Amino acid sequence: MSTIAEKINTGEKLLPSLEKEQDLLSGSEAIRVIRRKGVDSFSKQGLPARKSEEYKYSPVSLLFKPELALRAPIQSPVLKTRDIDSYRIPQLDAYQITLVNGFFSPELSALQLEDGMISVSSLSTIPAPLVPLFTKHFGNYASIHADPFTALNTAVFADVLFISIPEKKLLDKPIQILNIIHADSPVLISPRILIHVGKGASVQIIENYIYTGKSSQVVSNALTEIVVEEGSRALFYKIQDHCTDLNLISTTQVLQKTGSHFDTHTVTLSGKWIRNNLNIVPDGEHCETHLNGLFILNGAQHTDNHTLVDHRKPNCESNQLYRGILDDKSTGVFNGKIYVRPDAQKTNAYQSSKNMLLSDEASMNTKPQLEIYADDVKCSHGSSTGQIDEDALFYLRARGLSIDSARALLMLAFARDVVNTIRIDALRTEVERLIEKRLTK
Amino acid sequence: MAKENQLLEEITGSEYKYGFSSDIETETAPKGLNEDTVRFISAKKNEPEWMLASRLKAFRYWLTLEEPRHWAHIQYPVIDFQDIIYYAAPKRPKELKSLDEVDPELLRTFEKLGISLEEQKRLSGVQSTIAIDAVIDSVSVKTTFKETLAEKGIIFCSFSEAVQEHPELVKQYMGSVVPYTDNYYAALNAAVFSDGSFCYIPKGVRCPMELSTYFRINTSGTGQFERTLIIADEGAYVSYLEGCTAPMRDENQLHAAVVEIIAHKNGEVKYSTVQNWYPGDKQGKGGIYNFVTKRGICLGDNSKISWTQVETGSAITWKYPSVILKGNNSVGEFYSVAVTNNYQQADTGTKMTHLGKNTRSTIVSKGISAGFSNNSYRGLVRIAKGATGARNHSQCDSLLMGDKCGAHTFPYIEIKDKSAIVEHEATTSKIGEDQIFYCNQRGIPTEKAVALIVNGYCKEVLNQLPMEFAVEAQKLLTVSLEGSVG
Amino acid sequence: MHMLSIKNLRAGIADKEILKGFNLEVKPGEVHAIMGPNGSGKSTLANVLAGRSDYSVTDGEVKFNGKDLLELSPEDRAREGLFLAFQYPVEIPGVSNINFLKTALAEIRQYRGLAPMEAKDFLKLIKEKQALVELQGTLANRSVNEGFSGGEKKRNEIFQMAVLEPTLSILDETDSGLDIDALRIVANGVNKLRSKDRSFVVITHYQRLLDYIVPDFVHVMFDGKIVKSGTKELALELEEKGYDWIRKEQGEKIEA
After folding, report:
1. Which residues, 6+ apart, have CB-to-CB distance to B45 below 8 Å?
2. 3-class DSSP state of A373
3. Contact A4 B64 (CB under 8 A)
4. B306 touches chain A (CB under 8 A)
5. Cβ contacts (< 8 Å) between C114 and chain B: which residues?
6. Among the four residues A384, B266, B275, B462, which has the most C-beta atoms within 10 Å?
7. Does residue B467 belong to the interface with chain A, where contact is any CB pair within 8 Å?
């Protein structure tokens, strides 16, 4: 129950610097107009209030300290190719793209693209023939009015990574994006990506979130829009591993056209405070969508996975599979929403969220929601939270395993539901290795 | 599809059976709400000073609140709280010596509702014994079997009487589970509540009969704000039933009740509701706004509180019968069937707050939406730190009949103890055409097949109701869904 | 006088015609077996006769005891005495078998102008019929088909048939998925119900069932109509030679 006049716009203190930033940022007139709309929308919304339903379990007020700057002290920190070598995935042959503080860095990328392969550009280097495509899609799907962080990113993004996969292009190897945040003082970074997957194309993308700074007050507010055109297929992996101490809001907005297939994995192993917003709109018939997520938290980590699948057309299928393991004082949130609009008859939508608490100090909040407006549908969700199966643990120990390795084995098995669905072999092996490292103390 | 829609539109819905209004001489407070209204109600009831003070405190707090409008999945016009009559009572002599002194029209009213206020009679065809407290508009008109119960030390009377006769119990427990600060309507209720039932089951006593309150809104323009308080002392048991109806009127009438249950060590309370307030007509005109706060606390170890509700009435239902599981090994249960048809809206569910060790809760919710209605389950399962060994299992199913209604599930699960095991499952589906055809092939017409299937779907919940209520509830389900074949 | 008379029946699902001029006449007391390869339209026939709305009839007529069957709603067909033992009986959670049958029987009796059966008599009837299909008492109290094994579901169909006492029973692949014991029980149940007033149309893919339920006539269905009729020996011939020779014969006919 809210009492009258409890309206503290915690975003207000950001407004003056947002305004100032408008003149400093580069970009065409059209881009300036888009940013201006972002500023206006953010000034109306402010940061989510303490009682905001969407941020109920992830209050943001502590992230936005007054000393938070809106740009990194040095725009292109001195990173060498060898600095990022350690973030590459062993055995993974990929088109590798590097973003540093939201800026596309061709020098640190390894692309070697042939003609007609794919197009990778930044805001200032979009090839002329692709400008109409960019203009048509950019900023059109993630609504600045629906979420203040979308508005905030739109207000201050400095660069855009634009990846376009041409029609019918079946990409031979994955694209890997290293989204590096490199800052040592409190700063808000707003990386922005637009990926367009042309009709009948197929692509696999891995995005690694990396933080190389020392401050624990850096906030990355990343926004990625993905358009999956008719009959195309996109697999999108978000790996949040090298980001200890980072505060991250990562929003992914996906539009799926008729007959398309979109699979995504969100794997969170490190990060101080992470909010993943994953909004999928299958806006055509016969779309298939899979959302998988795995988070393994310890220390005082906080991870909030918000998913929304907005079924608008008939005959689509969506599947959500999330697993969480929480230790120490960590907190986890899973808020999954399946929305079935009146026209979306014959929708099949499933959701499963299972969590394991390892410590008395850890906590998990789950909110799996169904909002259904069509009758000929099959929708279900299952959610459970518990601890390690003591009987199984005992069984393993009776077979000679130490308690630690028995626990690790069971947790690995628990995580494997999600890991097994990773389709890139090198990535799956790497994720398995990371998990094993994490779970074997 | 086309055939379904045709069927849906063709078959007309059934009429609300309890929609008559009775011409009973009534005394009402002037419309509107201010401190004088509160004083008027208190004075009418000849209340002690402490009660008036408690009402005024709640009223002043209510004034500082904003009407909650946004979080629930319901929509309705702004309520003008100055356009409501807060007190309406059938006129009667000061002291009722016998049933003969009750207005005969009032007796007829209850007879029409199938409820006999004469102790030798029973609910039609029912063998078991039920003690009834009948509440019409703002006051309790008659409580049956009072003397029989008194022999066992059981107190079952109207709330007003309890204030006069058992002030120490009222003072001790009123507001202890639902404080006036709890929410907007709880504050309003604490300020203007008129009557309701009070039960106290002493230590070690198993109440020999079902206790029941029958609520009836009669007078136009009134709100009903009753308050019920049930206390099971150590080792006591009671099964309590609640039923309600209202006349058919074009206006929306507000019903904002508060129910508090306290179960001491080894005590058990089973609370069953068949809610059948007038739901409004087929166009969604009229009907009761049912904004109710119901909560129980399992105070002592091994205590148990069980809520069973069958919600078929009201234009809007907005209630979450909850249990605070404080005592170790205590048990909370919530069994619910909520049916919405035409333009009804329901946002209902429960909160299970686990504080004690080895506490267990079960939630079974069956939602059925038809017509243009919206039906939401909203629930919270909270396992507090230190509530070791807590268990919860929730099952929320939604059935959709027709393609113009909505079914929604909003479960909140908050876990702060690693030893907790919490499971939640939810499904949404439509009534199976195969099932209907199977019934047809055995000679059962579609309407009846739907009733059969729906009753089967709700069985887990209906099984929790006392026999006579279960029969009534089954009939209600059938009636509520007539004309909604999908 | 025929109990069932099907003339030139054409029916299908969506735009696909499945029954292509089907003819059959059944007299009271007769048992007809309809055999045929998968996809020949056997189950469609059963569903069309029972009145499933997914199928549309485009031509032909069906008389049942002199009445136009196709004009009747599915429940009225049942009340007139037509019973379909489903190939895949559905589950109805929470509705007990007993309650289900009581409702069905009351509806059928009411249609025929009979008073509802006394509870005592009904229970007696249930007990008696249960024994007929060797169905355990607990099954009758369980929800309709819920958690039943395949064999139990089929036995439950025959049990319902025994209780409702239809004049015409259509058994749609009742033998599929049954082990030999269950098959024997089901067949026994049917045989005990055979009488001079009651007829059966037994749809099956295999001859096996016909060892137990001996038919008066055997028809071979192919591509939506009956292509060959005979007595029980025809079934044995089919068992021996398979359906290929029918297919061949039909192919030749079409070519010629």
Report:
1. B160, B163, B194
2. coil
3. yes
4. no
5. none
6. B275
7. no
Smallest Cβ–Cβ distance between B400 and the set A365, A372, A382 belongs to A372
Task: Find the closest chain C residue to B460 by CA distance.
Answer: C94
Nearest CB partner across the interface for C79, out of B438, B443, B448: B443
**pLDDT tens digits for B162-221?**
999 999 999 999 999 999 999 999 999 999 998 888 999 999 999 988 888 887 777 777
Most confident option among A218-232, B89-103, C184-198:
A218-232
The total domain count for chain A is 2
Q: Give the ipTM of the model, two decimals please.
A: 0.88
Q: Is-contact A247 A275, C-beta < 8 A?
A: no
How many domains does one find in chain C? 1
Residues in chain A closer than 8 A to B407 (CB atoms): 370, 372
Mutate to test the interface with C, among B366, B438, B455 (most CBs of C within 10 A): B438
For testing contact with chain B, the best of A372, A377, A390 (most B CBs within 10 A): A372
Instruction: Tell me whether residues A2 and B415 touch, CB distance under 8 A.
Output: no
- Lookup: tokens for A114: 């042939």
Please state the pTM of the whole predicted model. 0.84
Q: H/E element holding C103?
A: helix C97-111
Q: Is A377 left (phi over 0), alpha (psi -120 to 50) or beta?
A: beta
Of the candidate ranges A94-98, B97-101, B363-367, the one whose mean pLDDT is the lowest: B97-101
Exposed / middle / buried, residue B23 (Cβ in 10 Å: 0-12, 13-18, 19+) = exposed
> What distance in Å separates the CA atoms of residue B382 and residue B390, rounded to the nearest whole number?
10
Report CB contact under 8 Å: C75, B457.
no
Partner residues linked to A3 by β-bridges: B65
Nearest CA among A265, A304, A270 for reference residue A435? A270
Domain ranges across chain B:
2-482
Residues 6+ apart with CB under 8 A from B444: B452, C75, C103, C104, C107
State which of A255, A283, A311 marks the end of a domain. A283
Structure-block tokens of residue B257:
């009740």
Phi, psi of B194 (to 5 degrees): -105, -50
Q: Which chains touch C (3 or more CB pairs under 8 A)?
A: B
- Whether B63 contacts chain A with CB within 8 A: no
Q: Looking at the partner chain, which of A2, A4, A385 has a beta carbon nearest the beta carbon of B420?
A: A385
Contact between C52 and B460 using a beta-carbon 8 Å cutoff: no
Contact B431, B401 (CB under 8 A): yes
Does B415 reach chain A within 8 Å, measured CB to CB?
Answer: yes
Q: The CATH number of the domain where C221 resides is what?
A: 3.40.50.300
Sign of torsion over alpha carbons A9, A14, A16, A20: negative
Which of C54, C61, C66 shows the shortest CA–CA distance to C14? Answer: C54
Question: Are A and C touching by the rule of 3+ CB pairs within 8 Å?
Answer: no
DSSP one-letter code for A403:
H
Contact B486 A363 (CB under 8 A): no
Chains C and B touch each other (3 or more Cβ pairs < 8 A): yes
Burial of B456-475, coded b for 16+ CB within 10 Å and e otherwise, reads bbbbbbbebbbebbbebbbe
Provide the 10 A C-beta neighbour count for residue B324: 23
Question: Three-class SS of residue B184?
Answer: helix
Residue A330 lies in a domain: no
What pairing do the DSSP bridges indicate for beta strands B391-401 and B421-430? parallel
Which subunits sit against B, judged by 3+ Cβ pairs under 8 A? Answer: A, C
List residues bridging with C243 in a β-sheet: none
Q: Considering A232, A251, A283, which residue would you say is the last residue of a domain?
A: A283
Residue-wise DSSP of A143-169:
-TTT-HHHHHHHHH----EEEEE-TT-
Q: Which domain range does residue A407 map to?
A: 391-441
Given this model, what pLDDT does residue C247 score? 78
Give C116's DSSP letter.
P
Q: On the CB side of B332, how many CA atoms lie within 13 Å of its CA?
A: 36
